[in-house]
Amino acid sequence: MTVTANAVPSTSAKRPFAWSSPLTYALALAVAAVSITPVVYVIVGGFRTTPQIVADPAGLPDPWVWDNYARVLTRSDFWGQALNSGVIALGTTLGVVLLGVGAAFVLARYTFRGREALYTFFTLGLLFPAGAAILPLYLMLRDLNLINSYYAVMLPQIAFQLPLTIVILRPFLSAIPRELEDAAAIDGTGRIGFLWRIVLPLSRPALVTVGILAFVASWNAFLLPLLVLGDASLHTLPLGVQNFSSQYTSDTAGILAFTSLAMLPALLFFTFAEKQIVGGLQGAVKG
Q: What was the pLDDT predicted at 15?
């Protein structure tokens, strides 16, 4: 009689990788610490004095000083720069969303020759470095008499944000069932009505995502405003940080306070809308 032993599973077999493993959490915490530490350092540094920072760069405020933030908030140029940043960021966001959803709707719901080639052309825009176009862009804006105006910043930013916007929106618009479009057509709703009444409400996560990304990118823009906004009254907050740093070179604590207040609106906006961004990007990947 032949006796067969039960197969014993090999202990050397590879186990599937688990995202819930302690190593994963450790890596995530390390990445978060690297990202958050500079932000925390700048904010906390604004509550210190310059001698405290020089004596102990990594120390905590002792005592906490509120004068640095108070001096920045009482400066009229700070609020003027905040207004300029807000107007440019909101205008850029509105243009990106409107033009992006229009282009994505056509690429997603219309069938025509060259559609995929046109979409590929937009996606190639993600690989184009904006810095490489600064000089010809400046010359074009100068010839159009747009230098020293909000449009000199908003129009190029809209153009550079459109590729990412279309890449995110197109999968959402393509995933909407054709049955809804057919039903809307039976009810007498045209293409524009279908876009306004059905497509936009269903694509809200993606619209919020591209809007937030456009707003934050515009708020933090530095190089383009530096080149096209020579008038100090039109300067944005990133330029205000540079001007303040040049004017008060030895006031390290004041510079940190100004920097903190300049980045705070975009930071809070991005933090509160994080779930919307994650949901929008997940939907784009699934689509």
A: 56
Q: Which of 74-88, 155-169, 188-202 has the lowest mean pLDDT?
A: 188-202
Q: For residue 49, what is the DSSP state?
A: -
Distance CA 187, CA 193 (A): 11
Nearest to 263 by CA among 228, 222, 206: 222
Long-range pairs for 268-272 at CB < 8 Å and ≥24 separation? 269/212, 269/215, 269/216, 269/219, 270/212, 270/216
For residue 258, give the nearest of 103, 32, 82, 117 by alpha carbon: 82
- pLDDT at residue number 202: 86
Look at residue 144 in the predicted model and tell me its pLDDT: 93
In this prediction, residue 33 has a pLDDT band, given cuts at 50, 70 and 90, of: confident
Residue 30 confidence (pLDDT) above 50: yes
Structural domain boundaries of the chain? 82-234+274-284
Report the distance separating Cα 275 and Cα 110, nearest Å: 31
Average pLDDT, the chain: 85
* pLDDT tens column, 146-187: 999 999 999 999 999 999 999 999 988 888 888 888 888 888
Residue with the two structure tokens 């906006």: 269
d(C-alpha 101, C-alpha 221), whole Å: 23
How far is it, in rounded angstroms, from Cα 93 to Cα 163? 14
Residues 6+ apart with CB under 8 A from 265: 82, 85, 86, 219
Q: Name, in order, each residue with C-beta under 8 angstroms of 245's C-beta and a sequence gap of 6 or more.
A: 255, 258
Task: State which H helix or E strand residue 254 sits in.
Answer: helix 252-272
d(CA 264, CA 257): 10
The superfamily in CATH containing domain 82-234+274-284 is MetI-like (1.10.3720.10)
